[in-house]
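Contributing: when you submit paired examples, paste them exactly as shown. First protein:
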Amino acid sequence: MVDVLEPLTAEEIDRLAHRTSERAVGRDETVYAPGDASEAVFLLLTGRMRLYGMAGGQELTFEVVRAGTMFGIASLMERTQDEYALALEPSRVGVLGLNDFWHLVRENPRVNATLVKVLGDRLRMIRGRMADIALKETPARLASLILDLVQSEGVVTRQGHYKIVAHYTHEQLAAMIGATRGSVTRAFGKLQDSGCVRIFRRQIYVVDLDALKRSASAG
């Protein structure tokens, strides 16, 4: 169930699987880096992958992709990759050659339409994050990011709170919002003091969603 491939029938998926190789990726292993030849697209079958670049000598995370996501598609029209793809945990990745991928897109208008929508959604998300970095203080940027994580991977606890399933270090969160580890630690303190979130066993819990939204829009 990879996002771009959802319109395909089971028979079409089976044919595609025969043209897709599979690769096991260890934690902190890089799948590709800027300058690598752009010869394939990647299907994240299990695990999590961080897509990031460098800006002013600092890492900036564009997106954390999860199982069921196609990645490496931002460079489809380029000869080389322009970002890093790093595994946050042991993962399984499907590798589909560009020729096979473009054949799939040409032969299936539904996949073409889904691809355009997925790229558009990701572009809006990245633009929103860049606007946050430019205009908001660290606590508001962190609150916005936590809201995104609630939407993408949050689960409801027995107490009616939201729990972010995956573990994120302060360094990882800092790279996602263009901040430093220290400023993220201080921002967490402010969000906890305001009653928005709490940290328990290295996981983030949202205890007041409305308060978190207000913090995210505070600027």
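Second protein:
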Amino acid sequence: MKVFVLNHEGKSLMPTKPQKARRLLENGKAAVVRRTPFTIQLNYKTGGAVQVITIGIDAGYAYVGFSAVTEKEELIGGDFELLKGVSERITGRRKYRSPRRSKLRHRKPGFLKDTKGKGWFAPSIKHKLDSHLRLVNLLKELMPVTKIILEVANFDIQKIKNPIIEGKEYQNGHQAGWKNVREPSENRDTLFNLGI
């Protein structure tokens, strides 16, 4: 566990060990500015020597993993859970808003301004993007970050099941021959009996 350090101007320095941070606090050379993650700010001028710090982010669907490392050690690592049920929250909010708006007879029609402009994201995707940006900004406030690596991977599930698949064989997956995409999962027993 590391303690994050800011200089007297509030700029980030290299994290330090808890023992050294405790000594600085006891001698009055630093003050606590944040409890989670624990961060201190120095009261005196120091040099600005820093090491190369790389942040790695694994962008998952429900969880986001992160790690900040130097060439020698990991400074911080962990994961956090993204908010679930964003669309249900929006639907619930719409239910409360609709009756309130229907009472306003003088209200101008809103459909002209409610069109989705360029750069619009679905609320669930926007929350995911904003969460990643908040995480990166927090880590940049705490440490002098020099490089950020974001892991984005598309998995070829059919290639994992059948390593020699290629070309038109992709069209003959486990959903081939069914009327729609839901039908294979509804007829799961039939699939197991066929050995698929």
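If you have annotations for the second protein, write them as plain sentences, like these:
Residues 45 and 128 are 39 Å apart (CA to CA).
The longest helix spans residues 123-142.
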